[in-house]
Amino acid sequence: MSFSLESFSLKGKTALVTGARTGIGQAISVGLAAAGAHLLLLGHRDNLDETKAKIDQLGGTHETILLDLSEVSSIREKLVPVLEKYDIDILVNNAGVIHREPAMEFSESEWLRVMDVNINSVFILSQEIGKTMVQRGSGKIINIASLLSFQGGMFVPAYTASKHAVAGLTKALANEWAGNGVQVNAIAPGYIETNNTEAIRQDEHRNQAILDRIPADRWGEADDLAGTAVFLASKAADYVNGHVLVVDGGWMGR
Ligand code: NAP
């Protein structure tokens, strides 16, 4: 195969992105649409207008699906029947929640909610959509991991455990499905300006300490993740399997 820029095109592909309303999920949705994909935007509540408007501006196409991913059983009961009419080529497991509390006080209900959204739903969605990809002999799954897939963090034990699990699951699924033409990879964003990091950006001391460690000398923007997602979703990444690609302005190398 000779290489051409067409290898990055997503024309004719259908992509499902979870958590598409805001932040990284929005930026990745718009990026995939810019590369030509038809977007299935999975939202929690019916307010994805901003994401839809950005895709419309590009002349892209989209549909919306609403589901609360913390109700993991509803993925098989409600979502899978809706998805039957689509051939999903690209699945981006982006939706995620964070709960900050010292481990000694961390409530069981918060532990379970974080695990349900950040890892349990990722497994069930990947399993259900991965089956159809394996049957068709092609597909890309991109999981959104974190620097806390490698490090421990402070006061976010459930988040850290869930994101370590996301990295592990990425490799486990990649090993099983690479031979069937399905690539499973992850993106580990660094510190990105989104709702997820609002609280630590408001804390002047934490904000400065974080900035001091980022060689790029700035927080990341959600758009910094879009190109990486397009690459991993494209034919250009057909031989990339089980990789957790860090996009962090250099944080991990410091
Ligand atoms: P965000 O703006 O808070 O986005 C989180 C998204 O997940 C929202 O669209 C949210 O929908 C959705 N979501 C939350 N609970 C859900 C549920 N029960 N069912 C369905 N959707 C749900 O923050 P973000 O930074 O873009 O986060 C996106 C991903 O990046 C997460 O997995 C996060 O862990 C990861 N990440 C972020 C950073 C960072 O620095 N920002 C770093 C590493 C990894 P609603 O808004 O409608 O609730």
From TrEMBL:
Its EC number is 1.1.1.127. It comes from Planomicrobium okeanokoites (Planococcus okeanokoites). It is an enzyme of class 1 (oxidoreductase). The keyword Cytoplasm does not apply. Keywords: Oxidoreductase. InterPro entries: 2-deoxy-D-gluc_3_DH (IPR011286), NAD(P)-bd_dom_sf (IPR036291), Sc_DH/Rdtase_CS (IPR020904), SDR_fam (IPR002347). One of its GO terms (molecular function) is 2-dehydro-3-deoxy-D-gluconate 5-dehydrogenase activity. It comes from the Bacteria. Belongs to the short-chain dehydrogenases/reductases (SDR) family. This is 2-dehydro-3-deoxy-D-gluconate 5-dehydrogenase KduD. The gene is kduD. Pfam families: adh_short_C2.
